Amino acid sequence: MSKILIRGAKVLGGAPQDVLIDGEIVAEVGDGLNAEGAEVVEAAGKVLLPGLVDLHTHLREPGREDSETVLTGTRAAASGGYTAVFAMANTFPVADTAGVVEQVWRLGKEHGYCDVQPIGAVTVGLEGRKLAELGAMHESAAGVTVFSDDGKCVDDAVIMRRALEYVKAFGGVVAQHAQEPRLTEGAQMNEGVVSAELGLGGWPAVAEESVIARDVLLAEHVGSRVHICHLSTAGSVEIVRWAKSRGIDVTAEVTPHHLLLTDEMVRTYNPVYKVNPPLRTERDVRALREALADGTIDIVATDHAPHPHEDKDCEWAAAAMGMVGLETALSVVQETMVDTGLLDWAGVADRMSFAPARIGRATGHGRPVSAGEPANLTLVDTEYRGQVDPAGFASRSRNTPYEGRELPGRVTHTWLRGKATLVDGKLT
Ligand SMILES: [Zn+2]
Fold first, then answer.
1. Is 155 assigned a catalytic role?
2. Of 303, 311, 313, 350, which residue is the catalytic one?
3. 197-211 pLDDT, tens per residue?
4. Directed axis angle between helix 282-294 and helix 234-245, to 10°?
């Protein structure tokens, strides 16, 4: 059994303490712990957090291994401080059967840089017509609890209602990509002043908000649980706030890029800023930050969406939508939420570990840093500032909107059940 003593870390941003890992668990947390027989990691000044949990990752395997694999995606996750990721179902083939979700789950087990929890599709082939085998996916070895057609919206109200009814039986959750398809036909960016000036097809906020409004009402009607992916507008925040005040069982996520970037970036015509849902306005960004701070938005999820160079290095209209995010998420959250005084590190631990683990039922993750808990931990040098260099990414893809941008914070160590996956910023 190997012992590791993390010395003098600010646990969840609090007073410096020692944390002793013994084997797979946290054995002791306290002052001046005995280092005998332990490997010592000097952590003075650094912040120790529970391993981060991402409820929204695209690992692309099976089918698009040119953009990411379970191995490269989980290495990117470990680099970013994550110990568990939920893998979205829009692979080729689609993860809509027990066989495919078990394949993804098994690949995660084999590669071991972080735990991989597959998300099952809501409908067969993500086609929105026929419910997938939700029960079989739940009962499979993968134990699926989160279902999503992400990339596409479950726009048929009857199908959405049935899905909510079905998952209720086993405490699952439907994660909705809220995008009314007719209102967003041909849309290239946020509908507003900038889209009018650039002459690009607009994506109105109401296309997102109308689906969220319908789905929280459906969740209330059925008495089930719904999760809303990547909220991007101030109006969406208002609807979720209203739904929660009514006692509706809804949770919501925001991506790091929607906390930082606006549709002004589209003026560059650089497809790296093309994403679904689109970057919105300064007013939306402010509302999203406030909602994450006050808990209306429960979690930060990356929507890590790797694409090969050729799918992004083209004209705006032809470019694929999405950005990589696992390796920069914590830095963007520090920049937008911590350094602005909106959230402390305990708040970050909640929004990026405790709450996502709770929503997705990720056993052993999102646990307090205390004796007897699994040693899923991440150590962050919050004093660091540096430019983002995609050449150093572990992800197979490089489509980051932050290239050359200075951001704070750097994950130096990640431990998955006591085993180091990242040491001094280098993957093991
Ligand atoms: Zn989505």
1. no
2. 303
3. 999 999 999 999 999
4. 30
